[in-house]
Every structure is written in C-alpha cells, then in structure tokens.
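Most newcomers find our protein records easier to grasp once they have seen one. Read left to right, the backbone structure tokens trace the chain's path through space. Nothing more is needed to start thinking about how sequence determines fold. An example says more than a description, so a record of this kind follows:
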Amino acid sequence: MTGDHDKSLRLLERARGQGAISTAVIYPCSIESLKGALEAADAGIITPVLVGPRIDIERIARQSGLDLSCVPIEDVAHPLEATYRAAALVHEGRVQVLMKGSLHTDELMKAAASRKAGLLTPRRVSHVFVMDVPTHGRLLFVADAAINVAPKLRVKRDITQNAIDCAHATGIETPKVAVLSAIETVNEAIPSTVDAAALRDMAQRGEIVGAIVDGPLAFDNAISADAARLKGLETPVAGAVDVLIVPGIEAGNILYKSLVYLNNAVAAGVVMGMRAPIVLTSRADSSASRVASAGVACLLVQHRLASAAAGTAR
C-alpha cells in the first residue's frame, strides 16, 4: 500500500489500534491466500486460525518461505467441511471473523449461508467494497457488486443498511448515500430509478437509519457537486457522497473494477448480514486489498462490540 492510499492506511491504523481480531481463514491452499492472511497478522489486524488440510497448507508455507510456527491449524480436508468448521469456531467463540482462502466464492457462500453453518441473521446477506481511490478525497462504499445479482426493493433496503453500518464502523457518523441509476428522475422505463426513489422515501420514514439517502442519482452527480449544479440538482449528497448503491451486480462489478484498474484504487471487500463478517477477496486482488479487507472486517466486529457495550450501559 502506497502513500497514494492514505485513506486505507488510516483505516488500518484505526483497526490496529483496537487490537487484533481472531479470524478463521477458510481453506488457504494457495500462496496468495496464505500470504494474505499472514500479512494481515503481521500488520496487527488479525490473529489467524487456518482451517484446511494441514499437509497442503504446510507444504505451501515451506515452498513460499512462510513461517507457520505460531499459527494454529484446524486440519480439515475438504473446502466445504472447512467452511462448516470455521462457522463452528464462530459459534464456539474462538473466532469473530471469517476470511476466504483459495476456495471459490460460490462454494464458500453456499456453505456459509446454509442451515448447517447457522450464520444467517434476519438481515439479507450482502457485499460491500470499501474503495480508496487516489483521485478522490474520501472513501467510497460500493454495494452490492458481488453477491446479489438483481436485487428487489426489499433486498436493496438491506444492502443499503448494511453499507451504512459498514460506513459507521469506519468512523463516518452520518454517511451520505447515493442510490445510482442512469438518470436523476423517476422513469418507469428504468426500474432502478423507481427503486432509488423508494429507498429515499424509506430513509425518510425511518426504515433505513443512520444516513442521508438520496436518489435516483447518476454517478457524475453523486461524485461531483459541479455536475449536480450544472443540471440544476439540489441534493446534500452531491460531491460529498460516501456510499454508492448500484442497481445490480453488473453495474457494481464494472464500477469497482474500473476504479481499481483505471484509478489504482484499493478495494477492500467484506460480506455483511451474518453472525460474523466474511473477508471476501478475489484471486486477482493485491495484497493491499487483502489486508485492507481484513481491516474493514475487524472494524465491523469492534463497532458491534462497542455498540453492544453502549446498549448494556444504558
């Protein structure tokens, strides 16, 4: 991570300052996934527990010159069983975060969302990217670009609330949320504009809390106050947006990859809406993204514990 990514560096300092979080790394049977977990540990972000076939993990470590002498390994042969064992560690109170290793995302999420894993909550499971874009002055939270393909309105409500909660965990008290579409007016020929207006109304009624929500907004109007002014738009979100709610997975995937590959952004990815956050990274992700993702997940745990303690105190 370079000086261009000062926002991610501050995020990691915030996570590190509150102590490492115990994390089950599920099936870390590639150099990238094993190295990413150990780098997050070296950064003081997590305390890893490796869940997978011991013989394979130790072989990869030897070949890569990685030291596992102080890292516990739960010896589980198959990726599916590794996910179930990691979920059991959550229930046992031994870990508070799950981290994807080298298994496929679909394989991990199918097992993690099963009844056997027991990790689901009433909230819909969704994904949030926390983007550090060097050319932009603040972190951008993009949801959902990885899990929910074509979400209906009620699912979008949970996607939005999860993203707001993620922003809270990083220290943003009242995030500004733009619900994106292609235009700024409601047009029934573009269903995402109808949903965007409905989400805005939900926030006004208190069905979505903790943020200022507006939409529909095109991307330029969310990012640029000048663009909004030229179009005659009056919105507190323009030029000060924190959270971008995308219409569907295609738009979200294109947006986040554009920011990464054209703007050198660091993208931290985490799954929310379960009993433990899941660090969800791609095989193509940089080590900076892997460590930043662990940092976000740990901030989520720390924020939840702090909120629970405050509730108990009251």
